[in-house]
Amino acid sequence: MTVTSAQALLDTRPPAGSAGPAGAGPGGPRPAADREAGAAGRGAAVSMPSGRRVLVVDADPACADSLVTQLRRHGHEALGVRRGGAALRAHEDADLVLLDLELPDLDGLEVCRAIRAVSRVPVIIVTARASELDCVLGLQAGADDYVAKPYGLRELMARIEAVMRRAEWQPAAAREIRHGRLHIDVGAREVLLGGEEVALTRKEFDLLCLLASHPDTVIPRKQLLQQVWGDSWSRRTVDTHVSSLRGKLGDSGWIVTVRGVGFMLGNP
Questions:
Q1: Among 4, 49, 159, 229, which residue carries the largest CB count within 10 Å?
Q2: Could you tell me what percentage of the chain is helix, strand and coil, using 3-state DSSP and rounding each to the nearest 5?
């Protein structure tokens, strides 16, 4: 079972036409599974609850468009992206991520780790890497399940249902972060320092929130770039935003530089 990297440019265009020949499923499903999928509307129901927002991360346009089409036919809001950077920007709005490991900009395992570092959104790796070692590495990177191509559509839908069922039983991720005098309301995207609101830009907030989510951890510069900017900006970008954040928080000690590694949240 396998999944790909995630930084594809967002492609919100609806897939053209149908998913292919009758019964042709995403990722090259096996013929028997195709017949099962086609029968879903006639009684062989795929019991996946509808209405999920599903992010499909796959560099292969045919596979991605086919899977997006199948998900939409089952009542889901499906969006396909081709690159890991795009996935890192889009996963916050998704209820589920289907991630291929073979991406043009980032390795899928890196994308999975980056998403898991800041989010509890369920991730299923869907990839052609089918070895036991690949599966182990995917699960260790934080994936909730691992599916190898080619796969049967009914199997994938059943795995999605199982993963979403487990996720619904988990307590919700913290929507507020408190660190000394610093209070971050994640949902409202509001920052208070000593009870006074601090006006931040979108990227400044994302940067501070990432650091505050791991208060005792040094976050590497490369990871900050990937998760906040999608790895599409320069090293200088991080330094500029860190400097701006320190100024708005009124004390450089709020963000500590660990030379040669990255940054961590302080508590002046």
A1: 4
A2: 40, 20, 40
